[in-house]
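Methods: holo model generation. Sequences were used as deposited, without trimming of termini or removal of tags, and paired with ligand SMILES retrieved from the corresponding compound records. Each pair was processed once, and we did not select among multiple samples. The sequence and S-adenosylmethionine SMILES for this entry were:
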Amino acid sequence: MTPPTVTHHPASDTVRSVQVVEAKTNPHPPAGRTPKGPDWWLMMRAFLTQGKRIASFAPSSRFMARKIIDGIDWNKTRTIVELGAGTGPITAEMVKRAKPDAKLVVIELDPVLCGRLRERFREARNVEVILGDATKFGELLAERGIPKVDHVLSGLPLPSFPGPARDAILETSARTIADDGTFRQLTVMPLVYYKMYRRYFEDVRFRFVPINLPPGGVYVCRGYRGAAVPTK
Ligand SMILES: C[S@@+](CC[C@H](N)C(=O)[O-])C[C@H]1O[C@@H](n2cnc3c(N)ncnc32)[C@H](O)[C@@H]1O
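and the model returned the structure below.
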């Protein structure tokens, strides 16, 4: 970030006020510094301060995390990308199952949550936690020399993204996922967006997860049709 210019304002209280403004607009410690508090508190605080961008006030339950990865063949899986990992409940379940030579690329936009992820998975050699924007995940993978992934798992609040950003994420997923791979999306509004995902994919299966706060589920999608196909 470009530092604020203070040389035109010699009064020292101007300098102080610039620093205060900076502290207010950037309340997060840099990713990597260890955030304090349990996961539920970090998610709750992120939800209370950022609302729609977080979309859920609690981390996914272990039932949700297991449901989103259900059916993945870990013997064949080389690379998975996870978008919007929060405090890492899904990452944790993947780490238990992924082969040591598989790569888990985990992208999170919020610096505090990213700090938690880095702390939590610092021993997991096959996890890379990226502080970054999931709408750019194609570029983030390309920078790492990853042309294809087996599955894309998304915890992003995709329905509240602007249309072009959502299109970009789903288009990049379709281009990046290997032939028998899937795009998997969690939700805390069961089935509400089924039609929306059907606009993008030929085959959309919904898996209900009652034991989650709030109850939710997972869309498992295959066969990308493009962004502009109307719902049947
Ligand atoms: C509903 S929470 C899911 C968190 C976690 N996957 C879970 O299951 O508990 C959505 C997460 O997406 C992240 N997020 C929102 N927009 C993002 C973006 N453009 N790029 C990366 N992460 C984003 C939020 O910071 C938040 O951690």
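The chain has a mean pLDDT of 86.
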